[in-house]
Amino acid sequence: MIIYLYGPDSYRRREKLNEYLERYKNKYAALSLSNFDLEADGEFQKLKDFIQSQSLFESSKLGVIFNIGDSELKEQKELIKVLKENLESKDLTLIINETKKPTKEFSFLLKEPAIFWEFENLTGLELQKFLEKESEQRGLILDKESGNSLCQVFGGDSWGLISELGKLALLNERKITKKVLENHLHASLPVNIFSAINRMRSSKNIGERLSLLEELLSRSEDPAMIFNILAVSPYADLKWKEKVADYDAAVKSGKLEYEEVLLDLTLSG
Predict the structure, then answer these.
(1) Which of 178, 196, 230, 257 sits between 20 and 30 A of 39, alpha carbons compared?
(2) Distance CA 52, CA 192 (A)
(3) What global pTM score does this model have?
(4) For the structural domain made of 124-268, what CATH number should be given?
(5) DSSP one-letter code for 170
(6) pLDDT in tens, 9-39
């Protein structure tokens, strides 16, 4: 059996991987488990040895594979052959964990009998539902304003969102209002990020805007988060929204980095 997990949301992808690992560990007392990073030298040979090895003491074998697209061309052709030969294996399960959709050569991984799961970055209602579920698991109750603020700050960054919920869970407060959240952010960040970004948006002085941007980058170290807050500013007009949408598309297509976009936005005002 082959299971293909892919997509940029590494948190939810890792959660699904852990779910499978726990399931197999509970089901098979004599489970043989190994990891293979095909970006490293010699790992493909280790994978082949693992697949071909047999033991009377193993009830099942589970291999987790990373970076299937980074192996050499010759190895890649052999890897495809090995994977196809084990698509319906009963005693061997291979879980492939990747950030991207498979290339054309590996497209068979998105067809039965392979099992495949896609993990795109969450947005909109799906992101809100994810936040509600993860908050409940930590005993937190978020009001609408605080939930919206967290979604705005972290966008599709599930790891960042989970990390923030972990910090909030350490507070004495179980009910998280926008005021509680802002006080927490103010205490945890050297600058009030919301206030600084609003000042950067409204200031007519280029020097002040550049100074604020420099402070934000040096202290928050998360240009994607800064851009996301700027993009959803409640004071933004249609022209601004179209502008940031174009920048967002440029970043996601790899043409620009967030730091470049922020600098350009700051200089243009």
Answers:
(1) 257
(2) 57
(3) 0.68
(4) 1.10.8.60
(5) T
(6) 888 999 999 999 999 888 888 788 899 988 8
